[in-house]
Design goal:
Elements (H helix, E strand, L loop, with lengths): L4 E10 L9 E9 L4 E6 L3 H7 L5 H16 L12 H8 L7 E3 L3 E5 L2 H12 L3
Antiparallel strand pairs: 1-2, 1-4, 1-5, 2-3
């Protein structure tokens, strides 16, 4: 289809107890270099977090997800990583991590509207 450009994305997973191997999706990061787009959308399901890890405080997890959105947006409140070029921010956001917020595998696709694609992926991967 003409006008469609390649993009990369990864789901962001909440892994409250690594030893149990349980995780759930709480966000999506999408990068489309040709259209100069990097965006992230997140939402923490507090009830699911409490079900998987009753001792894990959602208030301690939400700032990590907020930071992902700020870094993707290039918001100075995201710290020094938010000042990096978009491609470097994306690769930093999807790099393997051992924190409670972990990226899943990077996938690819084609789009003519990366903002709409981010919303579509968020709807299918995160919303219930």
């Amino acid at each position: 289809m003409p006008g469609r450009e390649p993009f990369q994305y990864a789901a962001l997973r909440i892994v409250p107890r690594v030893e149990r191997g349980e995780a759930f999706n709480a966000g999506v990061v999408l990068f489309c270099r040709p259209l100069r787009f990097l965006g992230a959308r997140t939402r923490l399901d507090d009830a699911l977090l409490r079900a998987l890890a009753p001792g894990c405080d959602p208030a301690a997890v939400k700032p990590h997800l907020d930071a992902v959105e700020r870094i993707a947006a290039g918001d100075p409140a995201g710290g020094p990583i938010a000042r990096m070029p978009a491609s470097e921010r994306f690769h930093w956001l999807v790099a393997p991590a051992s924190t409670i917020v972990q990226p899943g595998p990077v996938h690819t696709g084609l789009t003519d509207d990366p903002g709409d694609e981010l919303e579509r992926l968020f709807g299918s991967l995160v919303e219930r």
